[in-house]
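Please fill in the sequence for the structure shown.

STRUCTURE ENCODING:
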């Protein structure tokens, strides 16, 4: 434990020194873990570099002077004692993807808005929540979570090969769930309820007597879901990749993706499903609310509506025409959610903070 703390301290010191001497205009602060926030930062740096925006990733804001410091998540901005202190010479952007009603961080929203220049969020539901908590609307910028369409694209012809590669049954209806929905970074036997793993399992329980299903899981901390699936005797495969983009080929093995969250800022699975031509059944959360059209680019239900989610899966299972219709429209709709589009929006936000950019 002491060695781990020392190693983390040294990583922060080295990162702070690099920030101090960096010629980048923007320091994008990521979590010190190989997960979504880090990958999002890597993609932004890559796409914005094509727009001549000079950024660097860092696990700390320390050392930055006369720059834009963009905290890639509210977790990277808050410490155990409150908002982190950033050198007065910097301009500050904080990304706040989502918050549930009982989220204690919302009590700090008004204070945070007085300390930072911009609060970025990915959906209008979070924007409205922050405004209710006292954040000025003028401080909030809504920029959707983007997707790299050069990586995520449809390949229905690969379904048989991918299933064979990962020993996924060919004769079953395969439903996907690729997210972290357990608390902590261990087995995840305690459910992270905002991600709706209990809802997911309730839906599978409801349809398993009508469809021969196999569940394809990815992401860490899936212990709760796996235990529930074992109890109901539903087969599953759990694969987890260190490189997030590798998840793309798992979509090719699916017949359907089921998103059952209670709260989301995105999620990425909305975009990934659409971009890979995977039929989507989802709760109305986050970016789903902003972009989804029921029966047009997917089938959607209110949060916790197990009956409607279950019925939607059966509709896709029984109605090939509906499935193909929603796939076709989703492939069109996802084009406006690309990194190319989002990069222009980010550039506008940064340019307003450093007009000479």
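FILLED IN BY: designer on duty
SEQUENCE:
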């Amino acid at each position: 434990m002491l060695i781990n703390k020392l190693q983390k301290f040294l990583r922060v010191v080295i990162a702070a020194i690099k920030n101090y001497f960096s010629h980048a205009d923007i320091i994008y602060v990521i979590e010190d873990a190989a997960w979504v926030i880090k990958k999002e930062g890597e993609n932004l740096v890559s796409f914005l570099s094509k727009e001549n925006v000079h950024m660097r990733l860092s696990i700390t804001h320390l050392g930055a002077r006369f720059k834009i410091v963009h905290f890639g998540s509210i977790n990277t901005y808050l410490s155990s004692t409150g908002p982190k202190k950033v050198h007065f010479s910097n301009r500050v952007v904080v990304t706040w993807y989502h918050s549930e009603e009982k989220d204690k961080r919302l009590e700090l929203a008004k204070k945070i808005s007085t300390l930072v220049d911009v609060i970025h969020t990915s959906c209008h539901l979070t924007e409205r929540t922050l405004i209710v908590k006292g954040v000025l609307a003028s401080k909030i910028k809504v920029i959707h979570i983007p997707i790299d369409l050069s990586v995520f694209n449809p390949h229905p012809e690969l379904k048989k090969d991918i299933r064979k590669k990962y020993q996924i049954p060919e004769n079953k209806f395969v439903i996907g769930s690729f997210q972290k929905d357990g608390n902590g970074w261990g087995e995840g036997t305690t459910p992270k309820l905002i991600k709706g793993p209990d809802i997911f399992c309730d839906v599978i329980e409801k349809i398993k007597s009508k469809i021969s299903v196999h569940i394809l899981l990815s992401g860490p901390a899936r212990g709760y879901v796996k235990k529930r699936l074992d109890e109901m005797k539903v087969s599953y495969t759990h694969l987890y990749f260190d490189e997030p983009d590798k998840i793309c080929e798992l979509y090719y093995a699916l017949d359907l993706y089921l998103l059952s969250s209670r709260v989301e800022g995105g999620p990425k699975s909305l975009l990934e499903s659409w971009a890979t031509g995977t039929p989507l059944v989802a709760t109305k959360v986050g970016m789903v609310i902003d972009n989804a059209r029921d029966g047009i680019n997917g089938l959607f239900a209110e949060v916790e509506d197990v009956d409607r989610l279950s019925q939607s899966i059966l509709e896709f299972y029984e109605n090939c025409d509906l499935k193909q219709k929603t796939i076709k429209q989703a492939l069109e709709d996802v084009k406006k959610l690309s990194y190319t589009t989002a990069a222009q929006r980010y550039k506008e936000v940064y340019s307003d903070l450093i007009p000479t950019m």
